[in-house]
């Protein structure tokens, strides 16, 4: 298997897992709204906590999603 083929299979698996996930869709909607909120209100402790919570929540959910879906991804060939 060539390295290029491996990348395309991995990329396909990642892209297929994202669009049907309502939590990722929510993060995609909230991100720009959060940026707009910070621009309008200004940077202060409240907006810093909101942005940090957004980033931590996104990272934790991504790690959770990877840990639950990496058991049997379809791009891994079993012997």
UniProtKB/TrEMBL annotation:
Keyword Transmembrane helix among record annotations: yes
Transmembrane regions listed in the UniProt entry: 24-42, 49-67
Keywords: Membrane, Transmembrane, Transmembrane helix
Protein name in UniProt: Putative membrane protein DUF2177
